[in-house]
Amino acid sequence: MGAEVSVPARIDQRPRGPVPEGASAGSEHLAAVPRPSAKPGNRRALAGIPVVLAVLAVVCFASLAFGARPISFETLIAALTDFDPANGDHAVVHSRIPRTVAALLVGAALGVAGAAMQGVARNPLADPGILGVNAGAALAVVTGIYVFGISNLTGYIWFAFVGAAVAAVVVYGIASLGREGATPIKLALAGAALTAGLSSLMNAFLVSSQDTLDAFRFWQVGNVSGRGWDVILPVVPFIAVGLLITLLTGRILNNLSLGDDVARGLGQKVGLSRAITALGVVILCGAATALAGPIAFVGLVIPHMVRAFTGPDYRWILPFSLVLAPVLLLGADIVGRLIALPGEVQAGIMTAIIGAPVFIWLVRRRKAAGL
């Protein structure tokens, strides 16, 4: 009698589990698809929270101390704790507080908006500047100045909101044409094309009206200097609402990062999810652009820096972008004050100098456009 050969029973490799409500037929395997998780990076992220907060605090103090008139640390503390109106150094410190607060608000808005745009578009090149949102807001503000004579921030805000929303809808609509839909590459190309077109229209307005050019030229380059509390306070509620909406979309963005089909299989309403995220992004971009002008690359660079130590989980990416983006904008503003004394280089120019090499590196990455 020959030796018996033990044949292992066939193992069914199909993942098992309940089918989510609303899943299409044949999509049972979606129930077993793991959602994005950064558990190995959770410890790093938790350990990084006090570090990034400390860095933000240091940069804020540096923003108050450095400039055409440097302030010592002792004088800075005295100006903040025991203000003397007759002391010139104390007055300088207090004059820099609105500028620092403006950079904090604009940086937080652009950083969170950029991270959310990259998640909802599944495109690592997504950014309010690259996808045409900032250009739409800027053109709308120029239109308000040229056609309606708007000269105050309250008017800028509403025009910036409308322009940002229209630009976002147009870019997504153009990229959605065709069989493949809104792919990452098509979104980037549509955003670049729309930015070029809107910039041409904006220049046409500016060259035809000297008054419009004078009102717009310093705002156009992106700057946080010269912003008083009368300009900052009207924007705070909009940025607060935009941050609240967007920061709550972390789980939504995690599902969307798996692809539309998988997200639907997990029971998520993809269209509604994108609409909610887009609403938060438009509010943030409109408010930030109205306050400081079109500042580029902050929303592009920061999310990639954050992913290096948090992993792909947007529940971590969004709050870390909220903290680190102001660090970049404040740092750019500080450097701009120091490299051209007694004058200064606007923060929007400095962020472009920092962000452009990073953008080129991302474009040259073989897999960047397909993430």
Automatic annotation (TrEMBL):
Q: Which UniProt keywords apply?
A: Cell membrane, Membrane, Transmembrane, Transmembrane helix, Transport
Which GO molecular function terms does the record list? Answer: transmembrane transporter activity
Q: Where are the transmembrane segments?
A: 45-66, 97-117, 129-150, 156-175, 187-207, 231-254, 275-302, 314-335, 347-364
Domain of life, per lineage: Bacteria
Q: Is tRNA-binding among the key words of this record?
A: no
Q: Does the keyword Plastid apply?
A: no
Query: GO terms for biological process?
Result: siderophore-iron import into cell
Localization annotation: Cell membrane
Task: State a single Pfam family of this protein.
Answer: FecCD
Q: How does it sit in the membrane?
A: Multi-pass membrane protein
According to the record, the residues making up region (Disordered) are 1-40
A GO cellular component annotation here is: plasma membrane
* Family, as annotated: Belongs to the binding-protein-dependent transport system permease family. FecCD subfamily.
Name of this protein:
Iron complex transport system permease protein
Query: Which source organism?
Result: Crystallibacter crystallopoietes
Please name the taxonomic classification of the source. Answer: Bacteria, Bacillati, Actinomycetota, Actinomycetes, Micrococcales
